[in-house]
Amino acid sequence: MRTLRLAALSLALMGSCTFAHPILPRVSDAEAQVEVELFRVALRKAVQAKDVNALRTMYADEFTHTHTSGKVDGKDARIVSLLANEATVEMAPTPEIRTTCYGGNTCAVRALSPIKRGDGKWFDVRWTQTFVKTEKSWQLVISQATGLLNTVRENP
Q1: Which helix (H) or strand (E) holds 125?
Q2: Given Cys at both, which of 27, 55, 66, 123 links 104, Cβ 3.0 to 4.6 Å?
Q3: Dihedral sign, CA of 48, 106, 102, 69?
């Protein structure tokens, strides 16, 4: 009898814990991949339209970007760079790009882009960005770029 009561109590507690922290509806990794690709298109359009409010919602408050130089920017500095038309991976062409999603709410984008350096020369940059789906929408949370110095050239 005591064992039966303990089993019933355990089941009741497990059931209540299941609903203690609601999670977002699960989407497939393929759906998430499409959503992130559309998000990246919308981000580029927001930059072209100089839509600061849209950009502020697209970048997480804790966002950081690590430049090829090692310099680290936060959300506000990154938005300023985008609006100033500085060379950024968000706006660069991506001859190589791969989006991988994990569990439908987290995606990593890895790509190769030609970037114009401050001295006017071009080089290839391998970059990674991480996107997370919040209650509201997707947000860009982390970005990191590595310059490939052996690819420095005069033209893209």
Answers
A1: strand 122-133
A2: 27
A3: positive
Q: 48 CB contacts (<8 Å, ≥6 apart)?
A: none
CA distance 2 to 65: 58
The identity of residue 126, as a single letter, is: R
- Give the residue carrying structure tokens 């697209």: 58
So where are the chain's domains? Answer: 27-153
Identify any residues that bridge with 153 across adjacent strands, giving them in sequence order. 122
Count other C-beta atoms under 10 Å from residue 14's C-beta: 9
Top-level class of domain 27-153: alpha beta
Tell me the pTM: 0.80
The tens place of each residue's pLDDT in the chain, 156 residues long, gives 555 454 444 444 444 444 444 445 556 889 999 999 999 999 999 999 999 999 999 999 999 999 999 999 999 999 999 999 999 999 999 999 999 999 889 999 999 999 999 899 999 999 999 999 998 799 999 999 999 999 999 999
